[in-house]
Design goal:
Elements: H1 2-25, E1 35-43, E2 68-70, E3 73-79, H2 80-87, H3 96-101, E4 105-107, H4 111-114, E5 115-122, H5 132-136, H6 141-154, E6 158-173, E7 181-182, E8 190-198, E9 201-211, H7 213-224, E10 228-230, E11 238-244, H8 258-266, E12 268-284
Parallel strand pairs: 4-12, 6-10
Antiparallel strand pairs: 1-5, 2-3, 3-5, 6-12, 7-11, 8-9, 9-11
Helix pairs in contact: 2-6
Amino acid sequence: MLLIENLKVITRYLFCACVVAAAASGQAPAPTFEVASVKPVGQVEGGGAAGTPAAGGIGVGCDGHAPQVAGRRFTVTTTAYALITWAYGYNKTWGCSYVSFADLLTGGPAWIRSERFEIQALIPEGAPTYTFEQFMRGDATGIEQMLQSMLADRFRLSVHRETKDVPAYALTVVKGGSKLVPSKADDKRMLGIRRQTDANGLADKLTGRRVEIRDLAFMLLLATRRPVIDRTGLAGEFNFEADFAPFDGTGDSAAPSLFTALQQQMGLRLETTKAPLDGLVIDRAERPSTN
């Protein structure tokens, strides 16, 4: 306990020194965690090369636990790769898997995708606090900035932005109109793809209840492993179901393709396109020092 209290005192002293230096230069100080513990905890199982999708629909480098965001505490066990995607605002565009499948985070050593770290951080008193839902929807700017500061300090991370054209799908409404059913207030929220065996053989079932189009687009990204751009113009929450043959070609199936199922069962279409997307290039990254 004494060590933690000393660490808090030292951190506050350094934070004040940074505030004074930033004020002298006319720049606002970068938000930082009051205390941030970083501990290596082992390798990701089954990780592959950068840009290669991992099993189970999760992009390489994205393997880890969901963060805990409660009051002033932020804790998570995950890769540096996932931390970087959160720190630089990719939660607004569906997060780590989106970045991995679109190959939007490039450069850097291989360990950022294959090694996990346990992060335990404390948000300073008086700073804005956020919920888990706000963080996962990209509405926790303060935590993003604190993660950037932590990555720069503990991982010696430096990056630069780069726009690149990547293969993508545009999600649109077919000529006959959408078949999505507007949700009711008492509908239980759910969204997922479940593999099953039915009269068509092996098939995937996409089910959504009280789902926005941006979340449907994310599920289609996991199925196709390509970014999906919402061009439907549809707003609100919807219910839907669609059965289709596994996109990865697994097993024998008489079910329609995902493209056909979307048109026939949901009144939507996936069209091949290219999209200019904002990416990050890692210029430098080092394994963090021991706490």
